[in-house]
Amino acid sequence: MKVSPVDVGRQAAARFDIGPATAVRWAKRVEASGSVAPLKMGGDRRSQRIEAYADFIRAQIEEQPDLTIMELREKIGSATASLRLWNGVALPGAA
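^ thats the sequence. predicted structure below, dont judge the formating
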């Protein structure tokens, strides 16, 4: 009889005093991948959103060098955070 990852996760959660959802997620990952190795942590997960606008951003800055971040944000029409956009202006090769 095979034990489901949900059952294994709940038992592990109770035994090691961790959240049941976390234990179930880990048990499912082990069943799917066969590995208990941790997943990669951290890293940049959002810059791709700004990089999609890289050519547009460069063109706007070339056209209007004194363009503010808020004006640029309006031109893009994105809900992108101003800081994220500011970091995007410093794209590789932008200078």
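The mean pLDDT is 77.
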